[in-house]
Amino acid sequence: MSSFEEAETEETVTCLHLTFYHPGQGEKMMFRCLDFCKRQQVRADDTAKFGRDSSLCRYSLMDTRVSRIQFSLQFYRKLHTSEYGFEVKNLSKKTKLTVNQTELSYLNKIELPLKCIICFGDYQILAEIQEGEAVDYFEIHLHLAEAPILQERCLPSLQPIPENGISPSFSLSQGKSPTEIDENELY
């Protein structure tokens, strides 16, 4: 047998990818203490805290509008399964945290879906979980977004457009009231 055949099977590691964005990130440099270059190992029983106080938080955000401890991420094993997940807990008394539009007040927590957007103040964080099997630790890989993660989208009107091609909102904006037209009257 070769040493390759006798080698331990390499287990995959759960990795939480966090992509940060703030509209003032260029001039305010609030992310200057974050390491965007490599994955960072975190013990499974540790809580990853994010906030302004570098003595309490593993991930510091250099912004006076961020709470001393803004939020935490806790790695856990789901009950009666071999699957792992993360819970996010809002630790700010002043600022609400939203996860995919679910609002969390102080000390509220929620399980992170495989892909979600975490927001507080002007901060936007895209969280994506890459599943793995390792039980002793997980990894966090930080990324910096160049553009906003959330975009204001102008969605088209979901009102049906009549066969004559004129939108009812167009007719109303022209001061005309909508009228019903038989399709045979068009010709």
UniProtKB/TrEMBL annotation:
Protein biosynthesis listed as a keyword: no
Polar residues bias: start-end ranges: 166-177
Ranges of residues in domain FHA: 49-121
Xref: InterPro entries: FHA_dom, SMAD_FHA_dom_sf, TIFA
Signal peptide: none
Gene3D superfamilies, per database record: 2.60.200.20
Cellular localization per UniProt: Cytoplasm
One GO term describing the cellular component: cytoplasm
Entry's Gene Ontology BP terms: cytoplasmic pattern recognition receptor signaling pathway; innate immune response; positive regulation of canonical NF-kappaB signal transduction; protein homooligomerization; tumor necrosis factor-mediated signaling pathway
Subcellular location, principal: cytoplasm
Domain of life: Eukaryota
Keywords (A to Z) from UniProt: Cytoplasm, Immunity, Innate immunity
Chain positions covered by the region annotation Disordered: 166-187
Family: Belongs to the TIFA family.
Protein's UniProt name: TRAF-interacting protein with FHA domain-containing protein A
